[in-house]
Write a structure and sequence with these properties.
The complex is a heterodimer of chains A (about 260) and B (about 270). Chain A has about 260 residues and is α/β, with parallel strands linked by helices. Chain A has 2 domains: about 170 residues, Rossmann fold (3-Layer(aba) Sandwich); about 60 residues, no CATH class. Chain A contains 8 helices and 9 strands. Chain A has a 6-stranded mixed β-sheet, sandwiched between helices. In chain A, helix 2 crosses helix 3. Chain A starts with a strand and ends with a helix. With about 270 residues, chain B is mainly α. Chain B has one domain: MetI-like (MetI-like fold). In chain B, about 80% of the residues lie in helices and about 0% in strands. Classes of the chains: A alpha/beta (about 260), B mainly alpha (about 270). Chains A and B meet through helix 2 and helix 4 of A and helix 7 and helix 8 of B. Bound molecules: adenosine-5'-triphosphate (ATP) and magnesium ion. Magnesium ion (MG) binds next to helix 1 of chain A.
Chain lengths: ~260, ~270
Amino acid sequence: MDPLVRLTGVAKRFPNGTLAVDRVELAIPAGSFVTLLGPSGCGKSTVLRMIAGLVEPTAGRIDWPGLPEAERLGGHPELGFVFQEPTLMPWASVADNIRLPLRVAGLSKAEAEPRIAEAIAMVGLEGFAHAFSRELSGGMKMRVSIARALVTRPKLLLMDEPFAALDEITRFKLNNDLLGLWRQLKWTVVFVTHSVFESVYLSNRILVMSARPGRIVDDLPIDAPYPRDDGFRVSDAYGDLCRVVSRSLHHAIAA
Amino acid sequence: MSEDAPQPRRRREPLWLKLGAPLVIGVLALAAWEALIYFKEIPWYILPGPIKITETLIRDWHMLWPSLLATLRVTALALLVAVVGGFSLAVLFASARWIELSLFPYAVILQVTPIVAIAPLIIIYVDNLTIALLICAWIVAFFPILSNTTIGLNSADHNLLDLMRLYGAKRRQVLWFIRIPGALPFFLGGLRISGGLALIGAIVAEFVAGGAGAGSGLAFRILEASYRLEIPRMYAALFLISATGIVIFLAFTVLTNLLLGRWHESAIRREG
Ligand SMILES: Nc1ncnc2c1ncn2[C@@H]1O[C@H](COP(=O)(O)OP(=O)(O)OP(=O)(O)O)[C@@H](O)[C@H]1O
Ligand SMILES: [Mg+2]
C-alpha cells in the first residue's frame, strides 16, 4: 500500500548556512503513529515543518502518494499541526479558537457548530466553550490546541513536542487521551519529542535522529499491542523497549 | 493540571482608594491656595483663588461654553481623521513592506517637527480656519496611532501565522482573523495618547491663529483675556482645557477596559 507521505533525499540548509537536516528518507504509512526522537537542535521541528509545507526543502522531494490528487491542491486542510505552545488567540473563546480553521475554509455557521461541539467533546472540554484562554490551565489550553487541529478532520496530525511544557501527571493523561483519539479516528500521527518514555508509550515506530546535520539514524518498530494504558507503563515489556530506544538515542548523540 | 508561570502584574487597588486619594490631595491643595490668598491678601486680579475662578466660570459660561464646543469639535474631528488615517496607513504598511519603508520616515518627520513651527504656515495657506486647525491637530494626533498599530499588526504570534499558512488562509483572512484583533491593545494604547495630543494640537493651532484675531476656541479666550488682563477668566478657560483632557483620557481608558477586559493582561482584574 502507498504510504501517506514519503520524503526522498530531503535536506534543508537555512539561508545562514546551517545544514539543519540532510538526506532524510522516510515513508509514513497511513494509520501509523510515528515519533521523531532526538537531541535538541537535531532538526525534528524542521522535518515536521517541511512535511507541513511551512519550510521548503532545499533538496529532495516530499510526495503524498496516499492522498487523492484533488486533496493535494491548495493549502493543506488535510493536515493538523500542534505546536509546543498552545498558540491560542487570547482574544477569542475556546469555541472561536477551534472555529479558526473552519472560518478560513469558509464553512457556514450551521456547518461549523456541530463540528466544533464534537471537537470540544473529544478533548473533554465540555462546558468550557465560552471560556477564554487565560481562564484555562496549561493542560486545558493544550486540549484546545488539539481540538483546533482535529476539527478539520485531518488525515495527518503533526505534533511538535505538544506536551513538553506540561507536568507529568497532565502529560500522562493527555498521552492516554491522544492514544484513544488516534485509535478512534484512525488518523496518522507524526509526533516529535525528546522523551524516550513518551515516545515508547505512544508510537508504533520511532525514528531516532542525530544532530549536525540532522539525520535519521535508527528506525525502531515498537511492537507492543494497543490499547496501551497505565498498566503498560509499569510493565517489563515497556522497560525493555525503553532500554533499547535509550541505547539507540545514546549512540545517536555520541555519533 | 498545571498553571502557567504567574506573570508579575500590577496590584489592583480598591476603587475608593484610587479615586479618593487624589481627590483628598486636590481638595487640600485648593484649600491651601484659597487660604494663601486670604491671609496674604493677594488681590484677585493678580492671583484669583478657586472660589473666584468658579464664580468666573459660572458668570462667563455663556462665552466659555461655545468656545469649549469649538475646541472640542476640532479635537474630535482631528482624532477621528487620525484614527481612520493612522489605522488605514498601518494596515497598508503591514500589507506591503516597501510601502512602510518608503512612507514611515515621512511620518516621523511630520511627528518630530514642532507643530508651533508649522502651524503659522498652515494657517496662511489654508483659507478655511476650521480646516487649518484640523490639519494641525491631526498632524500631532495621528502618529501614535500609526506607529502603535503598525507594531501591533507586526507582532502577531508567528506560530499562529504559520497555522494560517497551513490552512491556506488568504492575506485578507490573516489580517482580519489574526493581525487586527492582535493589534487592538496597541491601537487603543495609541488612541489614549492621541486623544490628549489632538487637544494639544487644537489648542496650539488656536493660539497661533488667535494672534491673527480669528477663532473662538478656548485658547482664543485665554489670549483675549490676557490682553485685557482678565486673569480669572484665563484660569477658568485653563480649567476647562485640563478638564477636557482628563475626560478624554478617562473615556478611552474605560473604552480600553471594555474592549480588552476579558483577555488582555493590561486590562485584566486580578482575582484573589
Ligand atoms: N530559521 C532558521 N534559520 C537558521 N537556522 C535554523 C532555523 N531554524 C532552525 N535552525 C537550525 O536548524 C537546526 C535544527 O533546528 P530544529 O528546530 O529543527 O531542531 P529541533 O530538533 O526541533 O530542536 P528542539 O528539540 O530544541 O526543538 C538547529 O541547529 C537550528 O539552529
Ligand atoms: Mg523543535
